[in-house]
Design a protein that fits this description.
By secondary structure, the protein is mainly beta. The protein has a single domain, classed as F0F1 ATP synthase delta/epsilon subunit, N-terminal (ATP Synthase, domain 1, Sandwich). The chain is 0% helix and 57% strand. It has no helices and eight strands. Strands 1, 2, 3, 4, 5, 6, 7 and 8 form an eight-stranded mixed beta sheet that branches.
Length: 90
């Protein structure tokens, strides 16, 4: 499969890498609504709060993750999902 047609997805927590896999898409919902990240997607960053993140692997199986808080960052077909984020509201 052409590398320009796949995403390299990695889910990262401060303690370890949770998941790494080539994928066809990443889908979820942010404060604006539903979205899909596909290969060749524009740079993108969003905050996800307690909603499913669905990853469609290259074999067309889906894997679903749900985190209380996560940041999804896409740049040049690399999707990093940062989770177990600690924050304080002052």
């Amino acid at each position: 499969m052409d590398n320009n047609l796949i995403l390299q997805v990695k889910i990262i927590s401060p303690k370890n890498d949770i998941f790494t896999c080539p994928a066809l898409s990443v889908s979820s919902v942010n404060s604006v609504g539903k979205f899909d990240i596909l290969p060749q997607h524009a740079n993108f960053i969003t905050l996800i709060k307690d909603v499913p993140i669905i990853i469609k692997k290259t074999n067309h199986e889906t894997v679903t993750f749900n985190f209380p808080l996560a940041i999804i960052y896409n740049n040049k077909n690399r999707v990093n999902i940062y989770t177990d984020i600690q924050y304080n509201l002052y």
